[in-house]
Write a structure and sequence with these properties.
The protein has 10 helices and 14 strands. By secondary structure, the chain is of the alpha/beta class. The longest helix has 24 residues. It is globular and about 65 Å long. The N terminus and C terminus are likely disordered.
């Protein structure tokens, strides 16, 4: 039992509850629009598995401590920690929780590699500025994005996982095995966990009921194709209950997959039409897609999402990129006008450029 004089957890608007036998959902507060991140406490044969840790804020830590106290779980009762991915609302408290619990840490190797790059602050800032320059962002907007991302950047810290995941691992729990599924797209090393016997999927940010997760451009990768392909693999599974990182548990994963794939197909078609109409840079395309003022913070995510779609379309030779200048420009191949070739599917009857 945590020895503390903490006020009741519900006073800060959170909740914790057992959603299926042996799996508890802990709601932790976030300082931005998503409001809440769900982390998961899973009963092992001896002790507990904690899936994600929440953001590196005192409010988030206090909420996690209150939840554990309410469940009569001591820090040392946590025997393993697994991160679904390295975004700050999921991994921010990892070092602190590892120190308190002494538990080994699991993280996918692709996200571990990415984290090493992100935590080199100067290098990452310069890289982000370069990408925004190629997108056509103004110097003023680039500076504003730098400022808006500063606090988030401080939430990243180097981690030393005890196990680097590849997907395919299993974790024995008190109610059967959890399978580690590599589900890239939202991040290159995103993982979900699947209880095959009970048909339960802990989906991280891969599947969220009311929103499509942000799929941002990643160097050297086709992030959108990876996301769509991993959705196909999830759709092939039998799932009766989805436990997401944001929002309430829900059902209907195949319908969600279908609608999400349709959303990205429509976005690809819209991007091709905008390019056919004269918008040639990621900045110009983002302005027309969202057609409203975006804060610098959200502008950065919009640009990277547009670039993920441009990467996808270029690799399938639906678009061509001119990278000869400081600002990259996309066009349709000579003699082609916008048509149905823009369907966003992981496999199409066109060559895919590596």
């Amino acid at each position: 039992m945590l020895a503390s004089c903490l006020t009741p957890y519900l006073e800060i608007g959170g909740d914790y509850r057992e959603v299926v036998p042996g799996i508890h959902m802990l709601e932790l507060p976030l300082p931005f629009s998503l409001g809440i991140v769900n982390v998961w406490l899973v009963r092992l044969e001896s002790g507990w598995l904690l899936i994600d840790t929440g953001m590196q804020t005192e409010a988030c830590f206090d909420a996690l401590a209150r939840a554990l106290e309410g469940l009569s779980v001591d820090w040392r009762d946590i025997r393993r920690i697994l991160l679904t991915h390295i975004h700050p609302d999921h991994m921010g408290l990892a070092s602190r929780v590892v120190a308190l619990t002494g538990a080994p840490l699991d993280l996918h190797r692709a996200d571990h590699e990415l984290l090493a790059q992100i935590t080199d602050t100067d290098l990452h800032r310069d890289w982000q500025r370069e990408i925004l320059t190629t997108a056509g962002a103004s110097p003023e907007m680039r500076a504003l994005v730098d400022s808006s991302m500063f606090e988030i950047q401080q939430s990243f810290e180097r981690l030393t996982p005890d196990r680097l995941l590849s997907g395919g691992e299993t974790i024995a729990t008190a109610h059967g095995a959890l399978e580690v599924l590599w589900t890239p797209g939202h991040s290159p090393g995103h993982v979900s966990l699947y209880d095959r016997e009970r048909r339960v999927l802990i989906s991280g940010d891969h599947i969220l009921q009311h929103i499509s997760p942000n799929i941002g451009w990643q160097p050297g990768r086709d992030a959108l194709s990876e996301f769509l392909s991993s959705l196909d693999r999830i759709a092939a599974l039998d799932v009766d209950l989805i436990l997401p990182s944001h929002g309430a548990p829900f059902t209907g994963h195949r319908e969600w997959v279908r609608k999400t794939q349709e959303h990205h197909a429509e976005r690809c078609t819209r991007i091709v039409a905008l390019i056919d109409g004269g918008a040639t840079t990621a900045h110009q395309i983002a302005e027309k897609l969202w057609n409203r003022h975006l804060s610098p913070f959200h502008y950065r995510f919009a640009i990277f999402e547009v670039m993920a779609h441009l990467e996808y379309l270029e690799r399938r030779e639906v678009l061509r990129a001119d990278r000869s200048g400081a600002v990259y420009r996309w066009t349709l191949p000579a003699g082609q006008v916008g048509n149905g070739l823009a369907t966003c599917r992981p496999i199409v009857n066109r060559p895919v450029r590596p």
